[in-house]
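Dear colleague,

As promised, here are the two records you asked about, laid out in our usual form so they can be pasted straight into your sheet.

NAME FIELD: protein one
SEQUENCE, THEN STRUCTURE:
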Amino acid sequence: MVRIAAFILSLVGSLALLGSAAIAQPNGNYYSITLAQPAEAKTVVRDMLVNCDGAVCAAAQGTSRPAIVCASIARELGPVTAFRAGDHALDGEALAKCNAKADTTKIARR
C-alpha cells in the first residue's frame, strides 16, 4: 500500500511540473526576435524553426545559450535589433556581439 501511495504521489508531482512548464511558455515561443529587415515566414536555424511575421520573429527554446542562438539567427536572417530569451533580453553590448556574426552576403542575396 505504501508503494502505491508513493507512486501516486510521484505521478502527481510529475504532472504538476509538466503543467507549470506549459504555463510558462504556452505557445512555445521562448525566443522573441526583432530583425533589422523582414525575413521569410519560416526558417530553420540550428535545428529550430524560426517563425517570422515581417521583421518580428519567434522560436521555441533551443539547447544553446541565448547569445549563440542570437548569433546563429543573425548569421542566417541578418542583424538583430532586439532579442529576448524567456524573461531575459540581451543588452546593447550583447546585441553588438550577436550582430558581429551577421552574414551580409546572405542578406544581399535575398
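NAME FIELD: protein two
SEQUENCE, THEN STRUCTURE:
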Amino acid sequence: MEFLNFALSPFVAGQHSCKRVLRAGLAIAWLASVMFTAPGFAAPPATASLEWSDVPAILARIRAPQFPDKNFEVTAYGAKADDETDSLPAVRAAIAACAAAGGGHVIVPAGTYLLNGPIHLLSNVDLHLAAGATLRFSGKPEHFLPLVLTRWEGVILYNYSPMIYARGAENIAVTGQGAIDGNARREFRGWAMGISHLQDKAQELSRQMGAAGVPIAERKFGAGSFLRPSMIQPYECRNVLIEGVTLKDSPFWVVHPVFCTNVTVRGITVDSLLINNDGCDPDSCTDVLIENCRFHTGDDGIALKAGRDADAWRDGRMTENVVIRNCVFQSKINALCIGSEMSAGVRHVFMEDCRVEEGESCIYFKSNADRGGVIENVRVRRVQIGQSRAGVVRFETNYHSYRGGHAPTAYRDFVIEDVTCADATNYAVFAEGTGESPIERVLLRNVTVAKAREPLFLRNVASIRLENVRVNDRPLPECPPETPAGTPMLQIRL
C-alpha cells in the first residue's frame, strides 16, 4: 500500500498530473505490475529519474579512446587504390601489425579500395580513412562468412559478419573524412532491395528460437537465410569511437553497437536509403553520446534498442544513459525512436538541439504486447521539425505485434519541451497505451505545431499535462480529454 500511495503522488515536483485519470490509471498500472502472466516476464520496477542536471556526470564517463602515435598505412601492406584488387588481406595485415605493436592508427590513404569480406577490428586500433578514401565492400554474401556472434533484430544468433566488426575489444575507432560503401545498391540488389522478403522464414525462425530459449550455439544462420548484415557493429566492446566518416548503401542497419559501454558517435554522415537502413541503433548499450551527425536514411534515423521479447528478458541488459545532441535528420521513416526491440528496457535518454527536416513520426516510442520491458525517463528539448507525416510526438503500443503475447511495455516519465513543427500531415500528438499498462507521466511544454490534420489522439494515458502547447494556432487544454471510443484513427504507418 505504501507503493500505491507513492504512485498516486505528483510525478515530478512542480509538474502536477491531471487528476482526471491519474488515480485510476496508476492504480491499474500498479495492479498490472504485480499480475502479469507472461511466462518469464516480470514488470520492471520504476527507477529514480535523471534530469538535465545529471547529463554532465554521464558525459564525464563518455571518453573517446586515445591511441598511440603510430601509423600503419594499408598501402605498405599491399592495398591497391584501384577499386579492383582485393585489399582485404592488406587491411587485415595492417590491423594485426598495429595491434601487435600496442595500438595506433591504420591509415587508408585517398583512393577506392575493394574489400572482398569484412574488417574485424582489434583492441587499440583506430581505422582512419583519409579525405578522399573509400572502402568499398564487395557485397557478395559468401564473402561475409564464417558466421560471427551478433544480434539480429533483437535476437542473439550467429550470422554473416557485419562489414566492420569487433567482438570483446577495447579502445577501437573508425574515424576520418573518407567514406565506407556497403555496395548494397549494386551488388546486394537482390538482398537489400528486390527480394529481401526471402529472409522471412529465417527471421521468424530466429524469433521462435529466442522465445523458446534455444541455446545460442544452435542459432546458426548465414548462407541461405538472407539475414542481411549491419555495416558497423562493435559487439561487447568498451571505449568505441565512430567519427567523421560518411556511410552509404548498407544492406541493413548502418551503425549498430551491441552490448557496448562508452560509445561516441560524432560527426558522421549516413546517406543510406535502402530497406531497413536505420542510421544508428545502440542496442543494450550504456553511456552513449551521439552528436553533430547527419542522418539521411531509408528507415529510422536513430533507434535505441534493447533486444526482443523473452530473449532480452533473460539477458537483461538495458540501454541507458544516452545523450543525443546537434543532429540533423532527413528520414524516409522516423527520426528519433526508442524500440521496437527494447525488451530489456531503455531509460535515461536525453535529446537536445536537433533538427528534423522530414520524417514520419519524429519523436517516437514504439513497442507491442510481446515486448515487455520499459521505456522511461526520457527528456527532449529544443527540436525543430519541418514535416511530420505521422505524428510529431508518438507513443505506440501496438507496433506489428507478431505472437499475440501478454507482456505490455511500461511507458513512464517523459518531458518533451521547446519543440516546433511546421507541418504535421496527420497527428501532432498520438498516445495510445493499453488497459493493463497505461502511459504514465507525460509532460509536453512549449510545443507549437503550426499545421496538423488532428491535434491529439489519446487513449489509455494515465497522466498527461500540456503546458503552452499550440496546434493550428490554438492552445490545447492542460488536461486534455481522452479521445472518445469509436473515433476512427487516421491511417498512419505502424
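A couple of things worth noting about protein two: The longest helix spans residues 19-35. The domain at 22-60+300-488+490-494 is CATH 2.160.20.10 (Pectate Lyase C-like).

Best,
R.
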